[in-house]
């Protein structure tokens, strides 16, 4: 299903578009693989000076495809490593990363923004990280990056209670650089990407390297991934995904 990620390289800007709007741009293993391939390849492509990530339709992304999580929780699948490749490619990416976000950005849809250097939100954007509500733990080094960015109290509330953060608050907290009207989103994100593309690439790369240690982030991802994998196979997770499929609230009080 790699057609669900569209790739365009134009004017030094590699645009990656999540193109599964009928499924709220929920990310599948194949989509993670194509995104990872594109970002990893950009590291060796001098024509790519900036990477722009955007979503098609009325939502940035609903996060990981819940059906794939459910299959692992039910013991029907071993899961995928492409999501690991994707988030690690973000951590190691030396190119400037720009994100254009409209509507909801759920789970990895929000945590990937912590790896983007410039984030533009539409006024209708809503960020959420409901990992605990699915009996899971944070990923993409967000357990390190989110508290550092917005403080422990706010980060804990986002993780533990799955609280949704509207665009205005996200900007005030430092999760975004701009909030613009929805009809201006793509133009604003592209304008910023074009400005970055005109900057000296070597200086941008050196600056980003000084500001972020990719290997430290990957180490945190590995620690999170171990816990994530364990939690995904628990009775709590089975109840969470069964309840999701049955469209009812989960009852974790009955899970030993």
TrEMBL record:
Keywords: Isomerase, Peroxisome. SUPFAM superfamilies: ClpP/crotonase. It is found in: Peroxisome. InterPro entries: ClpP/crotonase-like_dom_sf (IPR029045), ECH/Chromodomain_protein (IPR051053), Enoyl-CoA_hydra/iso (IPR001753). The keyword Isomerase applies. GO terms for molecular function: delta(3)-delta(2)-enoyl-CoA isomerase activity. It comes from the Bacteria. Gene3D superfamilies: 2-enoyl-CoA Hydratase, Chain A, domain 1. PANTHER family: ENOYL-COA DELTA ISOMERASE 2, PTHR43684. This is Enoyl-CoA hydratase.
């Amino acid at each position: 299903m790699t057609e669900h990620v569209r790739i365009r390289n134009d004017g030094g800007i590699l645009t990656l578009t999540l193109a599964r709007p009928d499924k709220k741009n929920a990310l599948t293993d194949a989509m993670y693989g194509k995104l990872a391939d594109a970002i990893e390849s950009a590291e060796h492509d001098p024509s790519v000076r900036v990477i722009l990530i955007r979503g098609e339709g009325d939502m940035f992304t609903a996060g990981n495809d819940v059906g794939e999580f459910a299959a692992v929780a039910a013991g029907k699948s071993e899961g995928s490593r492409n999501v690991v490749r994707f988030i690690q490619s973000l951590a190691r990416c030396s190119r400037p990363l720009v994100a254009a976000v409209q509507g909801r950005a759920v789970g990895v849809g929000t945590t990937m923004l912590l790896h983007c250097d410039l984030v533009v939100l539409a006024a209708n954007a809503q960020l959420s990280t409901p990992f605990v509500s699915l009996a899971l733990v944070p990923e993409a080094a967000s357990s390190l990056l989110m508290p550092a960015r917005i403080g422990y109290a706010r980060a804990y509330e986002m993780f533990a209670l799955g609280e949704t953060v509207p665009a205005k608050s996200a900007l005030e907290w430092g999760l975004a650089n701009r909030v613009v009207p929805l009809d201006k989103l793509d133009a604003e994100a592209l304008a910023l990407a074009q400005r970055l593309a005109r900057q000296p690439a070597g200086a941008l790369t050196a600056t980003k390297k000084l500001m972020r240690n990719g290997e430290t982030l990957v180490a945190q991802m590995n620690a999170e991934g171990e816990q994530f994998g364990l939690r995904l196979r628990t009775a709590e997770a089975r109840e969470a995904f069964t309840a999701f499929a049955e469209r009812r609230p989960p009852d974790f009080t009955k899970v030993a």
